[in-house]
Amino acid sequence: MGEAIEGRVRELIEDTNFCHVGTLTKDGWPMVVPTWVDLEGDLVVINSAEGRVWPANLRRDPRVALEIINSKDPYEYVWIKGRVVEATHKDADEHIERLAAKYLGEPFPKVAGEVRIKFKIEPLSIHYSPP
Amino acid sequence: MGEAIEGRVRELIEDTNFCHVGTLTKDGWPMVVPTWVDLEGDLVVINSAEGRVWPANLRRDPRVALEIINSKDPYEYVWIKGRVVEATHKDADEHIERLAAKYLGEPFPKVAGEVRIKFKIEPLSIHYSPP
Predict the structure, then answer these.
(1) How far is CA A20 from the centre of its chain?
(2) What is the rounded distance in angstroms from the CA atom of residue A37 to the CA atom of residue A30?
(3) Separation in Å, CA of A41 to nearest CA in chain B
(4) Which end is more exposed in chain B, N or C (fewer Cβ atoms within 10 Å of the end residue's Cβ)?
(5) Antiparallel, parallel or unpaired: β B77-88 and A38-40
(6) Strand segments (E) across chain B
(7) Could you give the count of Cα atoms lying within 13 Å of A57 in the half-sphere of its Cβ?
(8) DSSP-H helix ranges across B1-90
(9) How far is CA B10 from the centre of its chain?
(10) CB-based contact (8 Å) between A85 and chain B?
């Protein structure tokens, strides 16, 4: 069962902080890239485009790490050990628009032909580090 | 052979940007935490304290990912696939003081009894993402 996302952890994710996503490459190496992030209930939701390395990693191996750091005080952060429970194209375009509204305050700069993919992640353990 | 660290990648690391370190836990899961970072030639150098999870991960498995993001423009970042080539207590106290001078502009807030450890990381591949 996933852990509930509450208190400062929920606030850090709901704010416009970036998420640093750790995935596993084909050769078993960790990989870390920054992404936008938001929540659907107690699931953490991120979005990418088909053809990139890290979404391919998550399709191959659902084990994922999410680190969200407070951009106003980088000594406060949360590290989440999670598992991808859904990878879908359905609603992925609407989702990237919601993320663009949150982070950019304007429509997402669409790239022609790009196929968006949305990942829903269940938090298995949540490690909050206070400032 | 490691890759040379040049241009914007070197500037991003030399600036006071945080590094998001990806390691592998005992159960093979990725883990991501923020750290301070600097360079020794073409090696990326990070510092932690014995007893924490991520340095123990790096002692067990030298495969590491480093993501350094521009705090002034989070759409510019670099992702480095690296390998730990040295984990040492020697010079680790002096190194954390150099990092504190860089990031805090003041002495490191020492914790009594804490044993610092310094990791030297060879970059195997460098992926720069322009803003």
Answers:
(1) 8
(2) 20
(3) 23
(4) N
(5) unpaired
(6) 19-24, 30-35, 38-40, 43-49, 63-69, 77-88, 116-129
(7) 23
(8) 7-14, 53-60
(9) 13
(10) no
